Amino acid sequence: MIATHALAAAGGNSPSIPAPHIEYGQLSPMLVVFGAALVGILAEAFLPRRLRAATQLGISLAGLVGGFVAVVVLAAQGHASTRAGLLAMGSVAIDGPALFLQGVILLTAVLAVLTYAEGRLEPRINGHRIDAFAAQAAAVPGGEQEREATREGLRTTEIYPLTLFAVGGMLLFPASNDLLTMFVALEVLSLPLYLMCAIARRRRLLSQEAAVKYFLLGAFASAFFLFGTALLYGYAGSLRLGEIADVVSGVAPVTPALAVTTQNDALLLIGLAMVSVGLLFKVGAVPFHSWTPDVYQGAPTPVTGFMAAATKTAAFGALLRLFYVAFPGIRWDWRPVMWGVAILTMVVGSILAVTQQDVKRLLAYSSIAHAGFILTGLIATDRRGVAAVLFYLLAYSFVTLGAFAVVTLVRDSKGEATHLSSWAGLGRRSPLLAAVFALFLLAFAGIPLTSGFTGKFAVFQAAAGGGAAPLVIVGVLSSAIAAFFYIRVIVLMFFSDPQPSGPAVAVPSALTATTIAFGVLVTLGLGLLPQYFLDLATKASIFIR
Amino acid sequence: MNPVNYLYLAALLFTIGASGVVIRRNAIVLFMCVELMLNASNLALVTFSRLHGNLDGQILAFFTMVVAAAEVVVGLAIIVSIFRTRHSASVDDSNLMKL
To answer: What's the number of CA atoms in the CB half-sphere (13 Å) around residue A333?
Structure first.
């Protein structure tokens, strides 16, 4: 056990610190992704500009697919069930939920990276294909430098290594077994995302504004997370989730220091509350949701899709691990608070979505409401709850990624036409695209035969089984409110006349088409034949301590 | 001196930082307030480390410093880019998006 020497001994006859034992094989999904990110940075530094975009796409896809293969191999070797274990001196846990969520995150990242590389949507400039990201992120919007960079057809290919670093942090986040690792993973996933928000090609002021808001509020939330960590460390004398659980339930051997600090429940409760604030901010739960609509609207749409799907998955994984591994002993203290948060999140998310006039903001509020639905599964505090949350995250990730990919296709001369009024009559102009978007909206609403229904059914069933029936009633009611505005968009697309100066639907290349097709496939697949994936989620639902 | 006093100081610094984030309007000042919150957490971690007689808290304090440095890089890059666009670092001016 590293780092538990008494301070007195450390002063006098300085004991040697043993070299930590690292299980590289089981950590390989993260190592592959981080390795690919480093290769991407080198490519950025040394390759000539014209080769960069294609090379970066190749490196990213190789890294992400390689990571996914590693996850599948680990799961096949039984690291998700019988051989699950604590690695890297107990700071990382590779178990069922960790591997399941890592697989989901890697798959969503693969599809998101495909939408990054889409070069057919914007008109060519001087023969150069351009994408959704700023020609030169450092240039002042509207300035001479920007015009020149645009003329030369520059692209911000740094987006690929940034994404890989964010994905690496996301892989570590649900697997982190101590609060130190969790904090580092939180920052590793957040810092690249702040930058990625700031580099939209169109509407750059909005994009920069979104980045500033996300950054300041995100840093504020992680400061809360850190102070909460300090208080929990003060209470339990350890950062390990398992050891905190032992101290909380009173089975740990009592040292003189613990005898004093465990007297003070304020340390435990305030610490838990502040750590939860940090995590609930990341999942976008009310009352920590105010960044969500602005950031979703301002960020480049491919980044928004990635962020909405993968960040939520990673953050819910960490939230589950925190509550199920470290604090099952005081669930009677945290459950009522989480009840309140879940109810507020579902109701506020659904009601505010009704008033939105912008597609991206609408999807943002819908993601807030979905965070509430997922929280009801977390409150179940049993194995079925974990399985339901895992399944919901799988279903939700692909729907939301597909929906944002569709948003990138509806365009007018100023870029994406995100105002709802310009979506009127889309079903007559482009029936296929409108039908696909309608399918995603129906999945968000939880209509049977889509993945959204199976997911919602699973979390509500788990919550009802866990004694949270009133929560389920609120959940069903807010689903009904939410269904209203999803249906409203569908009606708008199919049953109203198109505007004469309305947007055109761009024809995507195979890249975006693949992402949308996968979204449709998973949405229908999980709706029609969910049993295999429900079983998989159930098998993966045991946290190791 | 009783180490618990350092905890009171940490809580005080954290509160000053948090209220600064809520009250002040300049992005740079907001950012400094967040840094103050992180440093308050460091002080609490080191104090608890002393109380418990193990080194975990001190190690986390080192990690926090590295994270804070990385955050400065990212944060200042974003704030400087928006300042060059608008010639203002006030967060009240950034209001293109409203409910």
So the answer is: 15
Contact A141, A201 (CB under 8 A): no
Of the candidates B40, B48, B64, which has its C-beta nearest A234's C-beta? B48
CA B22 vs. chain centroid, Å, equals 13
- B29 to chain A: which residues are within 8 Å by CB? none
Could you report the per-residue pLDDT of A483-542, keeping only the tens digit for each? 998 999 999 999 988 888 778 888 888 999 999 999 999 999 999 999 999 999 999 999
How far is Cα B37 from Cα B43, in angstroms, rounded to an integer?
10
Predicted confidence at residue B68, as pLDDT, reads 94
* Residue whose pair of structure tokens reads 């994936």 in the numeric block: A533
Nearest to A407 by CA among A362, A452, A443: A362
Nearest CA in chain B to A181: B60
Which residue in B40, B52, B81 is closest to A198 by CB distance? B81
Which pair of tokens denotes residue A87? 């690695």
Instruction: Tell me which amino acid residue A406 is.
Output: V
* Average of per-residue pLDDT across B12-40: 94
Q: Which two tokens stand for residue A375?
A: 């929280």
A79-96 pLDDT, tens per residue? 888 888 888 888 999 999
- What is the spatial distance between Cα A385 and Cα A374, in angstroms, rounded to a whole number? 9
Q: Which residue reads 């007195």 in tokens?
A: A8
3-state SS string over A263-300?
A: CCHHHHHHHHHHHHHHHHHHHCCCCCCCHHHHHHHHCC
The answer to whether A227 contacts B44, with C-beta atoms less than 8 Å apart, is yes
- How far is residue A336 CA from its own chain's centroid? 25
Distance CA B59, CA A180 (A): 9
Name beta bridge partners: A178.
Answer: A240
What DSSP assignment string belongs to A175-197? Answer: GB-BHHHHHHHHHHHHHHHHHHH
Per the CB < 8 Å rule, is A6 touching B99?
no
CA pair distance A521, A306, nearest whole angstrom: 18
Q: What is the ipTM of this complex?
A: 0.95
| CA gap A362, A188 in Å, rounded | 28
Which of A182, A188, A209, A295 to mutate to probe the B interface, most B CBs <10 Å? Answer: A209
CA-based nearest residue to A176, from A3, A314, A269, A33:
A314
Q: Are B59 and A177 in contact (CB under 8 A)?
A: no
Task: Compute the residue count for chain B.
Answer: 99
Do residues A302 and A114 make contact, with C-beta atoms less than 8 angstroms apart? no
pTM flag (> 0.90): yes
What is the band of B37 on the pLDDT scale with cuts at 50, 70, 90? Answer: very high
For chain B, the C-alpha Rg in angstroms (whole number) is: 17
Neighbours of A319 (CB within 10 A): 25
How many Cβ atoms from other residues are within 10 Å of residue A378's Cβ?
25
Q: Report chain A residues whose CB lies below 8 A from the CB of B64.
A: 183, 226
Tokens of A127: 């023969």
Q: For the CA atoms of A448, A452, A456, A459, what is the dihedral angle to 10 degrees?
A: 130
